[in-house]
Amino acid sequence: MFYTTPFCCKHGGAAGMVPAFRVFDLFGLSVTQSDFAVVILAAGNGTRMKSALPKVMHPIAGRPMIAHLLEALRPLTPAATLVVIGPQMDSVARIVAPAESVVQDPPLGTGDAVRTALKALDGRLAPQGGIDEVFVLYGDTPFLTTQTLSRLLAERRRISAAILVAGMRPADPGRYGRLVLAPDGALERIVEAADATPEEQAIGLVNGGIMVIDAHHLRDLLDALDSDNAKGELYLTDIVRIARRKRLFCRAVELPAEELLGINTRAELAEAEALMQRRLRRAAMEAGVTLAAPETVFLCTDTALGRDVVIEPNVTFGPGVTVGEGARIRSFSHLEGAAVGAGAVVGPFARLRPGAVLEDEVHVGNFVEIKAARLGTGVKANHLAYIGDSEVGARTNIGAGAITCNYDGVNKYRTTIGEGAFIGSNSVLVAPVTIGQGAYVAAGSVITREVPRDALSIGRGRQVDKPGRAGQMRRRQLMKN
Ligand code: UD1
Ligand code: MG
């Protein structure tokens, strides 16, 4: 059984994070015994997504799906990582850097994509170069873990296979390629769903889209490909049949279907999101976070939640959020690019936008929006406020309805509020402006110049009382009717 393949991790670190077979420590010197290259295919049009965005750029838990794969590969330190992209995919090239991008134009199938990548690896593959295995991955399979990738490499070497393919048995084999095994258990060929006979369609073991290939054979195998199939493409999967014809040994190993989920449609994207969210919520709870209704909380892969954080139902985390120990995020809040300090309380119905930094014990209440602003320890902004491009000193109180006017239609300006200040309800602080330490701003003020330290500033029309005037007005109106 593949999961129990002997696998030792000689160099410490988390089990499975280091490919044990690659590096031997000789008298303190690390010597790379074998180098491998990674080729990630991402040039397909992703037609089934019906999207202007390249398929591999669609995010799952706040991160483009291809970035999940690169993240899993990173600890394995491949000798080269090449991403095959289409001609209008600069966004993919940017996100995968420093991995090299190679353009496949036009996309003539997965076999053609690997051929394109090989041109960029010219001279680096065995027997001329030092790279003696090539890991081919598809950019639309984001659930692979470092541990699994590392084990696949180790397994191919252990059994000296020309090609090792990762298979799975999903509930619905649908459009996946079927793995046809020989009586001795070797992998005989891969048949694409569109080309399969009814008997082949009935095979439950399918191609998960990962191959580890012995670099000595790869070029010859690819040269033998043809497009005599239902799609008229060069299928990478045909190299198994060609290898068998050359009497090379090929093998499939089975992985959990969950890890090999391939995303081709919006429905599969939604399934992937749900699966990733379940993983992230479980990990958060295992790390000591309370999720009152886990299925209603949406996390990003980089959401960092401290111990004893409580997340109430219906909270969404965008990318780049950290929450310190014991903080409480109340219902219906939306956080993105924000840092929340220990013991802080956010929400209900709060919005923290990029650059919001809440130090410890800050309280941000309902319908309060914070953007690019630092709120010092113990600041309270409990109702209906907007604080943007600001620095707010510790223990300052921001009254209901107070806002910073940070934008004049062209430029943004900063507001600085000292420690222990009190900003009265419904005040408008027209930036650039400074409110001194301990100052009071009267409710309803429009503040356009500096408020000195410990001053009380009132910036509003004076109240005028006209005794009896309301009654007179009412009587006049009644007479008119
Ligand atoms: C492919 C496999 C199938 C496997 C499934 C697993 C082939 C022929 N079929 O089918 O056996 O069960 O993945 O998810 O390989 N791509 C290119 N250039 C191209 C064509 C595709 O780079 O010319 C890229 C795509 O962007 C994608 C990947 O290759 O990331 C796979 O292509 P896709 O069209 O999704 O193949 P499947 O039909 O899913
Ligand atoms: Mg696919």
Span from first to last CA?
Answer: 92 Å
Under CATH, the topology of the largest domain can be stated as: Spore Coat Polysaccharide Biosynthesis Protein SpsA, Chain A
- Give me the oligomer status: single chain
Query: What number of domains?
Result: 2
Bound small molecules, deduplicated: uridine-diphosphate-N-acetylglucosamine, magnesium ion
CATH architectural label of the largest domain: Alpha-Beta Complex
Residue share in helix: 10-25%
Q: Uncertain segments of ≥5 residues (pLDDT<50)?
A: 1-33
> Which strand-content bin applies to the residues?
25-35%
The number of helical segments is 9
Q: How many E strands?
A: 38
What would you call the structural class?
Answer: alpha/beta
What would you report as the Rg, rounded to the nearest angstrom?
Answer: 30 Å
Summed over residues and divided by their number, the pLDDT gives a mean of: 92
So, the CATH homologous superfamily of the largest domain? Spore Coat Polysaccharide Biosynthesis Protein SpsA, Chain A
